[in-house]
Each structure stands twice: as structure tokens, then as C-alpha cells.
């Protein structure tokens, strides 16, 4: 059973927006000036996937 913060109306859009904003803040705080475009992009994507799997993954990939 998913918690209420995943099941309200419009949650799919709002959760993705919040995860994107949180990932952007983490990216801006931790980026290195020596990174190129690809390194920064892959860091952002990796952090987004990690946050997505931690917050939504257990309910999306429920194996029980």
C-alpha cells in the first residue's frame, strides 16, 4: 500500500517536480567547476534516479 503522499490527485506531476528541484539544488551545491557538460549531466541524472528509487521505488517495484 502506498502512502498518502504518493496517492493524492496530481501526485505524479508534483513528485517529479519536487525531485527535479531537489536534484538541481544538490547538483548546484556539489558540482565541480572542472566538470564538463557530460559529467554534470550524468551526475544530475544519477542523483535523480537515486532519489526516485529511494522515494518511489519501493512502491513502484513492489514484489510482494
Description of the molecule:
By secondary structure, this protein is an all-alpha fold. 73% of the residues lie in helices and 0% in strands. It is elongated. The model has no long low-confidence stretch (mean pLDDT 87).
Low-confidence stretches: none
Mean pLDDT: 87
Q: What does the overall shape look like? A: elongated
Class based on secondary structure composition and strand pairing? mainly alpha
Number of strands: 0
C-alpha-based Rg, rounded: 14 Å
Order of helices and strands: HHHH
Question: What percentage of residues falls in helices of 4 or more residues?
Answer: over 70%
Give the helix tally. 4
Outline the biggest β-sheet.
Answer: none
Distance between the termini: 11 Å
Strand content: under 5%
What structural keywords apply?
mainly alpha; 0% strand; 4 helices
Quick gist of this model?
The chain has helices at 4-7, 11-30, 37-55, 57-60. It is mainly alpha-helical and 64 residues long. Helix 2 packs across helix 3 (37-55).
Would you spell out the secondary-structure blueprint of this structure?
Elements: H1 4-7, H2 11-30, H3 37-55, H4 57-60
Helix pairs in contact: 2-3
Amino acid at each position: 500500500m502506498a502512502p498518502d503522499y504518493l496517492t493524492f490527485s496530481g501526485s505524479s506531476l508534483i513528485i517529479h517536480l519536487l525531485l527535479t528541484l531537489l536534484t538541481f539544488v544538490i547538483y548546484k551545491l556539489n558540482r565541480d567547476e572542472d566538470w564538463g557538460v557530460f559529467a554534470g549531466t550524468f551526475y544530475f541524472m544519477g542523483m535523480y534516479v537515486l532519489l526516485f528509487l529511494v522515494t518511489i521505488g519501493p512502491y513502484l517495484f513492489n514484489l510482494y
